[in-house]
Amino acid sequence: MECLNINNVSAGYGGGLVIWGVTIRVEKGELVTLVGPNGAGKTTTCRVAGGILQPAKGEIIFKGDNVTKLNAEEMYDKGIVYIPQEENIFPSLTVSENLDVAFQGKENKDECRKKLFERFPVLGERSTQKAESLSGGEIQMLGVGSALVLEPDLVIADEPFSKLAPSIAEQILDVILEMKNRGISVLMVSETNPERTLKKSDRGYFMKAGEITKQGSGKELADEAAELMI
Ligand SMILES: Nc1ncnc2c1ncn2[C@@H]1O[C@H](COP(=O)(O)OP(=O)(O)OP(=O)(O)O)[C@@H](O)[C@H]1O
Ligand SMILES: [Mg+2]
After folding, report:
1. Which CDD domains match (predicted)?
2. Please, what is the average pLDDT of the chain?
3. For 49-94, what is each residue's pLDDT tens digit?
4. Per-residue pLDDT tens digits for 169-225
5. For the chain, is the Cβ count within 10 Å smaller at the N or the C terminus?
């Protein structure tokens, strides 16, 4: 069953395009990874899928509905959680206040908070500390973990491993695989160690200079990752 279809999307900033004719499909419970060099347009693609940026052309279909014109808040209400590459938390707010923002409008927010603190006790221990005092790994636990407990239909995670030590990146990848195993669809951008993440992904897309230049199973792309990233 199809969850997300990015169909022939072109988008950019201030009237200039930076991605052209991008088509990506994510089925229910699939982990799909987007890789490519710096400036390829990976973040722009995620922004369009998350409703942060309106495409100039093409359409976004989510569970059969055309959501192209929806904004980020409306996408969230539909069941899409977008975890941006940067500024995915509010540094001057406490961990607990960040969760108030992450879980806003959800009826089961107390349950989500409890589940998150059970899964990541360190966040419970630091709940009254400002988020700026967290380590990079703890920040990603907050971002990715709060998406996990919300159990949306789709998570878009832009570079959830950037600047993390390998062992912490492995833990975050485990959380992403846990989401997938619960039937949550995940579109993830991975630049750090793409080979490792592609190997664990169902499918992957390679993007270069604003276009998708290759797609295949995670394993197929993993074998070619080193060559493709040049
Ligand atoms: N807010 C913006 N305004 C203008 N141009 C932008 C903006 N954000 C990105 N761009 C440009 O769009 C192009 C694609 O950028 P994008 O951030 O989507 O690439 P990326 O693949 O995510 O790169 P990275 O691996 O560095 O995160 C780049 O040329 C970039 O300079
Ligand atoms: Mg990016």
Report:
1. ABC_TM1139_LivF_branched (cd03224)
2. 93
3. 999 999 999 999 999 999 999 999 999 999 999 998 877 789 999 9
4. 898 899 999 999 999 999 999 987 889 999 999 999 999 999 999 999 999 999 988
5. C
How many angstroms separate the alpha carbon of residue 35 from the centre of ligand 2?
10
* Ligand 1 atom closest to 47 (CA): 18
Q: What is the rounded CA–CA span in Å between residue 207 and residue 74?
A: 27
Q: Which domain holds residue 140?
A: 2-228
Count of domains for the chain:
1
Residues with CB under 6 A from ligand 1: 13, 18, 36, 38-44, 85, 191
Nearest CA to ligand 1 atom 13: 39
Residue 128 CA to ligand 2 center (angstroms) comes to: 31
CATH code, 211: 3.40.50.300
Q: Report pLDDT digits (tens) over 211-226.
A: 999 999 999 999 988 7
